[in-house]
Amino acid sequence: MTREERIKAALNFQETDKIPVSIWMHYSAIDQDPLTLAKAQVEVAEKYNHDFIKLMPFGLYGVQDWGTKIHIYSTQGKPPIVAEYAIKKADDWRKLEPLPGNYGTYGNQVLLAQYVSKLTKGEIPFIQTIFSPLTTARKMAGDRILLDMKEEPEALKQGLEVITETTINFIKENINAGVSGFFFATQCCNSSFMTEDEYREFGIYYDRQVIDSYKDITYLNVGHLHGNHGMFKLFDELDNNVINWHDRWSDLNMGEARKLSRKCFMGGIREKPYWDDRGNVVKESPLETGSDEEIFAHVKEVIDEVGTRGLIFSPGCCASQFVGEKQMYALSAAVEKLSKKD
Hints:
Shape: globular
Number of strands: 11
Helix content: 40-55%
Low-confidence stretches: none
CATH architecture: Alpha-Beta Barrel
CATH topology: TIM Barrel
Radius of gyration: 19 Å
Order of helices and strands: HHEEEHEHHHEHEHEHEEEHHEH
Largest sheet: 7 strands, parallel
Number of helices: 12
Number of domains: 1
Strand order of the largest sheet: 1-4-5-6-7-8-11
Oligomer: single chain
Distance between the termini: 19 Å
């Protein structure tokens, strides 16, 4: 099977010669240079025989062009952080204007997709990372969006309309660049942050507009539910054909999730350290320090739980930038061996 054939079979719950697998992490030392980042991501995919590439633009790429000030360290393990939010008062939402999809920092991520397309020559599927409009709003304003929901909802909605339009413009440019799909991430659809009614009003309405712009064009469309206490059933209503979440440490594992959804699941690899009841780290992620035997057992647990169909192995979110070469090879070997019926 080719990589594309393997992924499409997994999406349709058909047998595959091997369960598809991919690991992604941030590249904070080089992610301000689209060509260098593209080469690094393609090299990793080829080295470990990954079945697709999740493009890894830095997590704040969607807010810089609207005036959010960012500290960029260009250092491994030290991703960019917000230095100053663009939105300081509710009226600032009304001042936002739509941006072209190839403008500024957005444009650099389109270049990333174009470079990866040229480097992979159609042999490795790749998907672009995008954020839900409400997640982008949160990155622009911080948690004050909760206040604006209550006190200035129309101002916030006006801003969300602009963010939605800009996100769709960006999506169109990535489709032209040849992406196989999108990794649609929300960091707001969890009950620790807001209520389901709030997400239905300020999240889902805009999410659907974004997803509708690509769902019938690209084939590998992943919804990423970020954080613990995710609103899984609500998120499952969206038209992504794959769901990815922190299945190895959040309050919902794959076995329980399979009772709620018949979509393809992406995950199974713990990306976080293990911690005790007090929050102290007791062991690093298997991708950093796991032995061959530990990684094999880690993969087998998921297959025993949900089987080999409708499954793509990946982390529940970004893996550490310090994953081990030995561990990455062990993961690929474990998935290949455990995929075989005998």
